[in-house]
Amino acid sequence: MQRLDIGQKILSENERYAQENSRLLAEKRLVCYNLISSPGSGKTSLLVRTIQALTNQVRIGVIEGDIQTDLDARRIRTTGAPAIQINTQGACHLSAVQVNGALHQLPLDQLDLVFIENVGNLVCPGAFELGEHGKIVVLSVAEGDDKPAKYPGIFAKSRAMVINKVDLLHSGAVDFSVDRAQQDACRLNPQLAIFRVSARTGEGLDPWCQWLKGQAVSVRA
Amino acid sequence: MQRLDIGQKILSENERYAQENSRLLAEKRLVCYNLISSPGSGKTSLLVRTIQALTNQVRIGVIEGDIQTDLDARRIRTTGAPAIQINTQGACHLSAVQVNGALHQLPLDQLDLVFIENVGNLVCPGAFELGEHGKIVVLSVAEGDDKPAKYPGIFAKSRAMVINKVDLLHSGAVDFSVDRAQQDACRLNPQLAIFRVSARTGEGLDPWCQWLKGQAVSVRA
After folding, report:
1. Could you tell me the sign of the dihedral formed by the alpha carbons of B146, B149, B154, B160, in that order?
2. Contacts of A3 in chain B (CB under 8 A)
3. Is residue B1 pLDDT above 50, yes or no?
4. pLDDT computed for residue A11 by the predictor
5. Read out DSSP for chain B?
6. Which residues of chain A have a CB within 8 Å of the CB of B70?
7. What is the Cα–Cα distance from A126 to A34, expressed in whole angstroms?
8. φ, ψ for residue B132 (rounded to 5)?
9. Could you give the CA distance from residue B112 to residue B119 in angstroms, rounded to a whole number?
10. Pairwise CB contact (< 8 Å): A123 & B121
11. CB 3.0–4.6 Å: which of A79, A135, A216, B72 could bond A51 by disulfide?
């Protein structure tokens, strides 16, 4: 019983900040997506490409979550977009209070869309609401097509799935059935929007960017 | 204070079972390694190849940890090796009590080496001792060479690092500096044994298998 009580207290502190983040995003009429994936699925590369493709169309800011280093925020800033780095110092996910601090460091009045790049972890980040509009799961084809079946939680909760590194499929360098991954993910989540991209070559970026643009516009409307 | 007390109680229950596992492994003169990595680094493929390569030399049993499905245990059993599947039902790591139950289901008297394949997660599993002899971190080149710097904990704690999917390097399909990954990992852990393999093509398996054989022999000696 004692364990349950304390679990609830921690959750409710996170929820309180998540609600505050949600309120702040609504006030600023910003859309905010929480990117979740395994380490190395290519979230940062996807963001760099997306920011470049949407220059002069959607003004993007980024909150970077990592256990250590500011490598990712520095990569984002090369595009000219503002990026705030959070180091969790060992923690396996971002919390709403950390995101709250970072939101207040971003120039929110000059943005349309905020991406939160969570710590690379396909399990824990999905359990912590940050006040975002939705979660987006990124899956690299190098990870294998069995991941939706084996890690169902985040695929069930996400608004969109980005299948990344599709350039590796053409060369036959990896064994990955796009059909299997999509079918398993859609079984868990029939409303899931699915995009197939290569952040490395730029393939497939256009539908993804158009969808994001639509999301940003819908919040401004 | 209350939170600290309870944290200690949970840890000590895990530690108690970890000690019991360690005692059981010593009694049976078995070596046991805990494989930790991101989802999709190729742990199961590496095990399948390793079991095949060490047939008639080292008798291997496997404990498979996954959130859902028994896909991995079934893949291991195609080799003829015994495999016990644990489903964590959402939990992001294996616990020592789960491993204890699985050890008692394996034919320990007929084995030399037990692999525990942990839940795919580069963060949380490293914090829970299972009674194993050591941890082995697997890193796929598709994940990027910045992972030791960004997720230092598990690289600092592991006895060995297996850099997998090196076949992707030859085709230029991924950008990954083996030197950078190795240097960052060795800075964290100068004693780390490092192997470069492709579980897909079989490249580099021999030094890895010889090392494992040496580990199994040293426990029997």
Report:
1. positive
2. 6, 10
3. no
4. 64
5. -HHHHHHHHHHHHHHHHHHHHHHHHHHTT-EEEEEE-STTSSHHHHHHHHHHHTTTT--EEEEEEESS-SHHHHHHHTTT--EEEEE-TT-SS--HHHHHHHHTTS-GGG-SEEEEE--S-SSGGGGS--S-SEEEEEEEGGG-TTHHHHSHHHHHH-SEEEEE-THHHHTT-S---HHHHHHHHHHH-TT-EEEE--TTT-TTHHHHHHHHHHHHHHHH-
6. none
7. 9
8. -70, 165
9. 23
10. yes
11. A79
| B interface residues, A as partner, C-beta within 8 Å | 2-3, 6, 10, 38-41, 66-69, 71, 90, 92, 119-124, 140, 142-144, 146-147, 149-153, 165, 167-168, 171, 173-174, 200
Model pLDDT for residues B203-219, shown as the tens digit of each residue: 999 999 999 999 988 77
Its pTM stands at 0.91
A39 to chain B, closest Cα gap in Å: 6
CA–chain centroid gap for A147, Å, is: 17
Structure tokens at B94: 């294996």
The Cα B205–Cα B198 span in angstroms is: 7
Cα–chain-centroid distance for residue A201? Answer: 20
Strand order in the sheet with A160-164: A83-87, A60-66, A113-117, A31-37, A134-140, A160-164, A193-196
